[in-house]
Amino acid sequence: MFVQILIYVYLGICAGMILFNIATALLSRRREHRSFRDGIRLELTVSRELDRLAETGAVSERHLRFMERRLRRVNGMAAFDAALERLCVRTITLAEDYCRRDEIEAAYFPYIIKKYQLLGGADDAPLKEVLLKLLNEPSIYCRENAMQALYTSGDAQIIVRALRIIDASSLYYNTKLLADGLLNFNGDKTQLAEALWAAFEDFKVWMQVTILNYFRFSSGAHCERVLALLNDGARDDELRFSCLRYLGRYPYPPAYADLLRYATPSENARWEYAAIASSVLASYPGAETAAVLKRNLYHPNWYIRFNASKSLEQLGFGYRDLIDVIEGNDRYASEILRYRFDMHALEEKEKEAAVCTTA
After folding, report:
1. Where would I find the H helices in the chain?
2. CA 253 to CA 255: how far, in whole Å?
């Protein structure tokens, strides 16, 4: 008798579990149906409101209250997520459609992405791919807007991919436009710098110069690498000129001896080395600096003389300090200093006049 009771109890438990599973399945299916239905409704509501936003430039207060009520519940948030996922697919389709339009319309799409910071999520990879395609468009407006949108992604690797596409293209892209654009990158600047250095040797010279120009206006953390590039005789001259300018913006004591050497004109080197280095030495005060710069005042090249005179002025050398040159027998050295001091006096007068006008 006891065994029979156990069997009946066991059968009752099994029947209860079966009924529970059936009820759970029915409820789950009902919830899924309700979630799908709510998601469709939300999608239609959001789509209508987006159309209204495009027409009027504002979101209705009624819609905001409706969304606030719906999103307070987890089910409402899940439905909203599903609606956005479907809208995202439509957005990608829309982006691809814009890529096939004329230049002005194609340029407007990445402008909107940049303006409203629409990149930066976990699921924006397809949209990034569309923006990368726009970098092959002939219109500079379209390509620049695509780059500006990509800068907002905060993704260092996607920026490197974009620069590779531009570098491999036969389309012209202004180096200053790119260098200034990189300053707008929204992500980790250190990660971007390391990604750029990792790919540096793969780029053409003009892109390497662009990257160095970006570094010159973003960080002084690259002096050691830049000095190595400067002293690599196999590198392109324009690249090494950029290295000199970088070391002028960020004084680096280990580079001092090399800068003195580059500032000394040589028949085996282009005159630009001495001209740029003479300007850079304004950031490296010292007796050797003064001696090299004073010597360059006598050089036949006007740019070398001018940069040397400007650096001496920036280092605090005045008329009395350079009286031997001004009153000397070298006409060109004397004239460049007089010109520099006259320019300085004129600039000071203009500043005083501006202060008086403001007061």
Report:
1. 2-56, 61-70, 74-99, 103-115, 125-134, 140-151, 156-168, 175-182, 189-199, 205-216, 223-230, 237-249, 256-263, 271-280, 287-296, 302-314, 323-326, 331-358
2. 5
Q: Tell me how crowded residue 142 is: count the other CB atoms within 10 A of its CB.
A: 25
pTM reported for the whole predicted model:
0.73
Find out whether 281 and 263 touch, Cβ atoms under 8 Å. Answer: yes
Per-residue pLDDT of the chain (359 residues; tens, 9 = 90+): 666 776 666 667 776 677 777 777 666 666 655 655 655 565 566 566 555 555 565 556 665 566 556 555 555 555 555 555 555 555 555 555 555 555 666 677 787 778 777 777 656 888 898 899 999 988 888 899 999 999 999 999 999 999 999 999 999 999 999 999 999 999 999 999 999 999 999 999 999 999 999 999 999 999 999 999 999 999 999 999 999 999 999 999 999 999 999 999 988 899 999 999 999 999 999 999 999 999 999 999 999 999 999 999 999 998 788 888 888 888 888 888 888 888 877 877 887 777 777 66
Give the rounded distance of the alpha carbon of 192 from its chain centre.
8
The DSSP code sequence of 62-96 is: HHHHHHHHHTTSHHHHHHHHHHHHHHHHHHHHHHH
Phi/psi class of residue 328: alpha, beta or left (left: φ > 0; alpha: ψ in -120 to 50)?
Answer: beta
